[in-house]
Amino acid sequence: MPDRKDDGKDDTPIEMVSLMNQSMEQEEGLIRDKGWIEWKGEEIKTYPLDYNKVGIVKIQIITNLIVFLVFGLNDQTTGSLIPTLTKSYGISKVVVSNIFLVQVFGYVLACLLNEKLHKKWGMRGAMNISIGLFILFFAVLALQPTSFFVYVACYLPIGFALGILDSTGNVLIGNLEHHKNEWMGAIHGLYGAASMVTPPIVSHFVKYGRWANFFCIPLGLSVLALTIAVPAFRHETAAKYDYICNANNVETGSLDRDDEQTVITLLKNPAVSLYAIYLFVYLGAEVSTGSWLFSYLLSTKSDDRIAMSYVTSSYWTGLTVGRFLLGFITKRVFSSEYVASLAYSLICLFFYSILLAVGTINTDAGWYIVVLFFVLFFCGVFVGPLFPNASIVAMQVLPRHLHVGGVGLAVAIGGSGNALLPYLVGVILHFAGMSWFPLLCWSMVVGFTLIWSIYPKYLPIRIHSYFRQELV
C-alpha cells in the first residue's frame, strides 16, 4: 500500500471538474473579472475554498464552529433536563420524550426543503433563515413557557434549522481545499465540547431554580453566529448555487441541469441511501447515549445529581477528544477515512460491550463510579470521529452536484435518527426499565458497525475503485 502524502491539501475524485469549467464557460459565454462571473444575467462571486488565500472562507469556518457549539448545547439540554421537566410540568418521561419526536418532524422538513431553500435563496439564505429560527425559539424557551405544549412546539423549527445547518456545514467543511479532516474533526469536536459542559451547567441552573436561563447561552451564540454569517455568506446566492451545480454537471454531459433532484431520486443512489441509514443509526446511538445516560445513572447508580452530571460529561469529553485528536491521526495512520472509521467502529463496539457488562453491577461505590467514568470516556472517544469521517467519504464518492442535495438529505435523515431513536429508547425504558439502557445503546452500535462494513459492496461499480485502492 503506497504511503499517503500529507501535504495538507486534500484531493477528491471530483477535482477534475474544475479543469472542465473552461469549456463550459466558453459555451455559456461567461464574463469573468477577478472572481466575478456573469451567470444567466446575474453577477456572482467565485473563489476557492482555501482559507489560506481567501479571508472570507475563514469567517465562514468560524460561523460553522459557533453553529456546532449551539448543536451540542441543544442536543444535550433535553437529556439533562428530563428529571426537571417531569417535575416542573407534572408529566412523565414518555411525554418529555415527545421533544425528540417533534424535532424529528423538523428534520423531515429539512429533508424535503433543503434543496428548494438553496435554489431559492442560496447558502446565504439557508444559513441566515436557520440561525434566525434559533434566535427566535431559543428566546421563547429562555422565557420558560408555562405550557409544555408551547415548550415542545419550539423544537419543530429548531429541528428544521438543525437539519439545514448541519448539512450545510458538513458540505462546506468537507469541500475545503486544505485540512478538511482536521477541520471536520474541529467542528464536530466543538459539538462534543458543548455537549460535555451542558450537564453540569444545566445542573447548576437547576440547583438555583433558574433552569430556563440556560437557554440564554445558545441564544447568545446564535445571535453571534448570525452577526458573522450575514457578511460571511453574502456572496453565496441562489445564482451561485445554480452555477456550482451546473459547473459540476459537465462530467455528466449536461451544461444546464434545471431538473430538481427529488428526495426519491436521491435515495435511489446507494451512496446516498446507505450513508443516510448509517447516519440515522449512528446519530441515534450517539444522542441516545448522551440524552438518557444522566437519567440512567440517577435511576440505577446514584441520586447525586452533580456527581452523575460529571460522569455523563465523561462520555461527551471522550467524544470531543476523539474528534479533535483522531481527526489528526486518521490521515497519518490509515489509508483512508473509510478504513479509519471501520477500525474506530470496532473499538467503539468493544467499549460499549464493556459498558453492557459493567452496567449489570448495581453499586454506588467510588471505584465503580470511576470505572464507569473511564468506560464512558472511551466509548465517546471512538464514537466521536465516525460522523465527520463518514461525511468526507460520502463527498469523495459523490459528484459535487449531489453534495448539497445528497449529503444534505442524508445528514437530515441522520439527524432525524438523533431525535427519533432517543424517543423510542425513552418509550422502551419507560415500560421495560432503565436497566435496559446499555443493551439498547450497544445494539445501535452493532447496527451502524455492520452498515459501515458493507457500505462499499452496494455502491456502483465505478465507485468500487476508490474502496479497492483504500483497502489494499
Notes on the structure:
- This protein has 472 residues and is mainly α.
- It has one domain: Growth Hormone, Chain: A.
- Strands 1-2-3 form a 3-stranded antiparallel beta sheet, covered by helices on one side.
- Strand 1 (32-33) and strand 2 form a beta hairpin.
- It is globular and about 70 Å long.
- It has 18 helices and 3 strands.
Summary of the model, kept short:
Its main location: membrane. By secondary structure, the protein is mainly α.
Gyration radius over CA: 22 Å
Count helical runs.
18
Q: pLDDT under 50 segments (min length 5)?
A: 1-6, 12-33, 250-259
The average pLDDT is 83
Shape by Cα distribution = globular
- Measured distance between first and last alpha carbons: 6 Å
Q: Element order, helices and strands?
A: HEEEHHHHHHHHHHHHHHHHH
Major beta-sheet overview = 3 strands, antiparallel
CATH architecture: Up-down Bundle
CATH class: Mainly Alpha
Give the strand order, joined by hyphens, for the main sheet.
Answer: 1-2-3
Helicity range of the residues?
A: over 70%
CATH topology: Growth Hormone, Chain: A
CATH superfamily membership: MFS general substrate transporter like domains
Strand share of the residues? Answer: under 5%
Structural class: mainly alpha
Number of domains: 1
Q: How many distinct beta strands?
A: 3
